[in-house]
């Protein structure tokens, strides 16, 4: 999605920047899977774990746990293959940070006894990550591009 929004001039500016789409999909799969399990089993600590992984991965992309599982285990064993695309990783980091922040707010609500708000925010993150995983539409990337457009 992010790549499709760029003009030819924008693509020239991105020369050398790359994103492995398979790593992004693995990340989204872990987010959806772990959060769904946490919701079904009513385990807020799983939501807290995912929020932490997302926020740490945003601040330090090399430390993104779910992507490390892909790079160190799934890709080397041949279970998954890289899908490298020339695109700016910034929209994806922004989306992950936004999702991690919403999720952290949900976790906070859960831990102060506001289960409806907390699980509601968890479900929003599940839904948006699942849409990205299934259809390739990154809502956080869309927000990123709209902010960029407004700043021009």
Description:
The structure is a single chain. With 152 residues, the chain is mostly helical. The chain has one domain (3-150). It is 70% helix and 3% strand. It contains seven helices and two strands. The protein has a two-stranded antiparallel ribbon. Helix 2 packs across helix 4 (65-74), helix 3 (44-59) packs antiparallel against helix 5 and helix 5 (90-111) crosses helix 7 (139-150). The radius of gyration is 16 Å and the shape is globular. Residues 1-9 have low confidence and may be disordered.
Summarize the amount of helix as a percent range. Answer: over 70%
Whole-number count of domains: 1
Strand order of the largest sheet: 1-2
Give the class from helix and strand content and strand pairing. Answer: mainly alpha
Give a short account of the largest sheet: 2 strands, antiparallel
User: Which radius of gyration do the C-alpha atoms yield?
Assistant: 16 Å
- Could you tell me how far the N terminus lies from the C terminus, measured between alpha carbons in angstroms? 21 Å
H/E element sequence = HEHHHEHHH
**How many helix segments?**
7
Our estimate of the beta-strand percent is under 5%
Backbone shape: globular
Low-confidence stretches: 1-9
How many DSSP-defined strands?
2
Mean pLDDT: 92
């Amino acid at each position: 999605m992010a790549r499709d929004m760029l003009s030819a001039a924008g693509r020239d500016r991105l020369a050398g920047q790359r994103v492995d789409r398979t790593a992004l999909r693995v990340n989204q799969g872990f987010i959806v899977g772990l959060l769904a399990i946490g919701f079904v089993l009513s385990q807020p600590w799983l939501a807290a774990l995912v929020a932490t992984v997302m926020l740490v991965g945003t601040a330090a992309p090399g430390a993104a746990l779910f992507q490390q599982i892909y790079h160190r285990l799934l890709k080397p064993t041949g279970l998954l293959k890289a899908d490298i695309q020339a695109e700016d990783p910034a929209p994806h980091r922004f989306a992950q940070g936004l999702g991690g922040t919403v999720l952290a707010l949900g976790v906070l609500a859960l831990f102060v006894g506001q289960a409806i708000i907390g699980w509601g925010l968890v479900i929003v993150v599940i839904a948006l990550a699942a849409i990205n995983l299934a259809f390739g539409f990154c809502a956080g990337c869309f927000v990123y591009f709209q902010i960029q457009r407004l700043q021009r």
